[in-house]
């Protein structure tokens, strides 16, 4: 350790020296030999900056090497990346009392490795860990990834609400979720965000189609050249200044991606809390995070996880707010009720009787739990319930209603949304319309979308494959022939018709619902918080 020699000192000076040195005795020339003791310094909470003036007053000058040696010895805790997409927190001769708190261990996902005698956590928590330890007075040495700046400029023009969203994100220390309706330009905000940060960026999307939409947006709204944009999916895995990947590919390769980016953008951020996809956040050293979504909520018990992982909603605008400023089309919704056919009604009643008999007073949630445990009556109840729901949603009585609406809206661009493939195919066959389902071949899918994009009028039928991921051309009429009770699905579908067209700032959505069936409460549930006006009518065959 660092030693120095001085002459005789008075009692007060000796007391000060004893706080951070050990007296080693006299030398042959009559001088007094001292050695700097970092254990004492640590106990006294003294830094190199504290002792340097004292030594200087005694004529002792420490070399750079001496300073570095003392600093290294004074480190209480070392933090560095380790294999397994984790961070190691290694104490040096100290007990970290803060980690003894069960709540702290739970919040920071701390685990102790008895072999290595160190704590482990995810990169996601590293900044919080460092702040906690430094604020508690520990001397922390963190060896974390460093990121060079990249050359990128935004070349678009942001709308007022997009500027507000970007400013909110900056004020939130570059963390949080921006929630804007479908068609409001979330992607443009994301491109502007990465141009603001100017650091290596990972952009995650839910589907390959969305990933390619991001590539186009980067080309349209930034000056990044093609060589600066990498696609990371399937067999093509490029890591560039800005790297685009799907969640499904990224979570499997966080060992390669996790330490490469200072900023991560999470498109369709509501997917992030899923059990496997959350790894794209937890095992990621990006301390700047931007979540983008039109539907910042989940209909399960993981909504709070979304807030914890991405920092909560920092900016939000509704479709109504943006429509009032002509950024989105003004929406009118009409619910058209019909009834089951006599044959369907008889079958529906039998199914519901079976459901009620087997379910007893158990909720759907309880039935699902019981079914997982092998409960036969729960399985039979759920089977009857699902068959009754499908019967209501796909009722033949909806076809003449749909025909009447298609005739009434002739001359417009119409999207027909369905829930089941057989329902979509029946509608497509009856009305001679192109149909997009998960079974549609890629070549046909691209052809149908391009045809719909180029036409001035017409209709396209979509199942749930069109709810997210596909770049659906703009339309001004939406017909929901079948759907779930999901508000998220409903908002995604409505968003498809909200992009204003030149000279046209009106959009209309129809819902066709079988009255007095399971579908009616599903319809009421999904429309919560979206409708400005609600027109209802019963379909008449006359």
Q: Can you put this structure into words, describing what you see?
A:
This protein is α/β, with parallel strands linked by helices and 542 residues long. It contains 22 helices and 23 strands. It has an eight-stranded mixed beta sheet with strand order 12-11-13-10-14-15-9-16. It has a seven-stranded parallel beta sheet with strand order 19-20-18-21-22-17-23, with helices on both faces. The relative contact order is 0.09.
Summarize the structure.
Helix 20 links the parallel strand 19 and strand 20 (458-462).
Question: How do the strands and helices of this protein lay out in sequence?
Answer:
Blueprint: E1 3-6, H1 11-18, E2 21-26, E3 32-36, H2 38-44, H3 48-57, H4 64-74, E4 77-82, E5 86-91, H5 102-107, E6 111-113, E7 118-121, H6 126-135, E8 140-142, H7 160-171, E9 175-179, H8 186-197, E10 201-205, H9 208-221, E11 229-233, E12 236-237, E13 242-246, H10 247-250, H11 254-257, E14 263-267, H12 279-282, E15 288-293, H13 303-310, E16 313-316, H14 319-324, E17 330-338, H15 342-359, H16 364-372, H17 376-393, H18 398-408, E18 413-417, H19 421-431, E19 434-436, H20 442-454, E20 458-462, E21 477-480, H21 487-495, E22 506-514, H22 519-526, E23 534-538
Parallel strand pairs: 4-8, 9-15, 9-16, 10-13, 10-14, 11-13, 14-15, 17-22, 17-23, 18-20, 18-21, 19-20, 21-22
Antiparallel strand pairs: 1-3, 2-3, 4-5, 5-7, 6-7, 11-12
Helix pairs in contact: 7-8, 8-9, 15-17, 16-17
């Amino acid at each position: 350790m660092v030693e120095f020699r001085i002459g005789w000192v008075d009692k007060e000076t000796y007391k000060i020296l004893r706080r951070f040195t050990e007296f080693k005795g006299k030398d042959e020339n009559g001088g007094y030999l001292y050695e700097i003791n970092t254990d004492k310094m640590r106990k006294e909470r003294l830094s190199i900056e504290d002792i340097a003036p004292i030594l200087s007053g005694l004529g002792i000058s420490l070399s750079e090497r001496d300073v570095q040696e003392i600093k290294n010895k004074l480190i209480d805790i070392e933090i560095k990346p380790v294999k397994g997409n984790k961070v190691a927190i290694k104490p040096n001769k100290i007990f970290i009392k803060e980690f003894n708190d069960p709540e702290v261990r739970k919040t920071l996902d701390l685990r102790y490795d008895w072999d290595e005698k160190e704590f482990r956590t995810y990169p996601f928590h590293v900044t919080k860990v460092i702040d906690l330890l430094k604020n508690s007075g520990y001397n922390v040495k963190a060896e974390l990834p460093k990121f060079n700046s990249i050359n990128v400029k935004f070349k678009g023009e942001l709308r007022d609400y997009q500027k507000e969203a970007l400013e909110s994100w900056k004020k939130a220390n570059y963390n949080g979720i921006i929630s804007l309706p479908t068609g409001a330009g979330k992607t443009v905000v994301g491109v502007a965000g990465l141009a603001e940060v100017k650091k290596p960026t990972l952009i995650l999307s839910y589907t390959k189609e969305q990933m390619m939409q991001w590539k186009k947006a980067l080309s349209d709204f930034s000056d990044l050249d093609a060589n600066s944009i990498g696609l990371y999916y399937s067999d093509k895995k490029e890591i560039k200044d800005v790297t685009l990947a799907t969640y499904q590919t990224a979570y499997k390769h966080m060992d390669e991606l996790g330490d490469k980016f200072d900023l991560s953008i999470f498109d369709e951020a509501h997917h992030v809390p899923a059990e496997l996809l959350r790894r794209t956040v937890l095992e990621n050293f990006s301390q700047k995070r931007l979540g983008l979504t039109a539907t910042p909520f989940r209909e399960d018990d993981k909504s709070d996880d979304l807030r914890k992982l991405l920092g909560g909603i920092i900016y939000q605008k509704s479709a109504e707010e943006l429509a009032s400023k002509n950024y989105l089309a003004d929406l009118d919704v009409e619910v058209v009720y019909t009834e089951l056919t006599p044959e369907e009604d008889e079958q529906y009643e039998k199914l519901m009787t079976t459901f009620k008999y087997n379910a007893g007073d158990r909720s759907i949630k309880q039935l699902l739990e019981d079914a997982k445990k092998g409960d036969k009556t729960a399985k039979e109840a759920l089977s009857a319930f699902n068959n009754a729901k499908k019967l209501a949603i796909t009722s033949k009585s909806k076809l003449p209603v749909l025909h009447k609406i298609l005739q009434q809206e002739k001359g417009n661009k119409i999207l027909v949304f369905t829930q089941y493939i057989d329902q979509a195919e029946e509608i497509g066959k009856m009305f001679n319309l192109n149909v997009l389902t998960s079974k549609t071949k890629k070549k046909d899918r691209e052809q149908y979308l391009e045809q719909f994009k180029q036409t001035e009028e017409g209709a396209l039928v979509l199942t749930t494959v069109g709810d997210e991921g596909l770049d659906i051309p703009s339309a001004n009429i939406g017909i929901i022939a079948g759907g779930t009770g999901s508000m998220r699905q409903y908002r995604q579908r409505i968003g498809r018709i909200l992009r204003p067209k030149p000279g046209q700032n009106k959009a209309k959505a129809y819902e066709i619902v079988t009255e007095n069936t399971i579908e009616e409460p599903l319809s009421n549930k999904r429309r919560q918080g979206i409708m400005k006006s609600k027109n209802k009518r019963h379909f008449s065959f006359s």
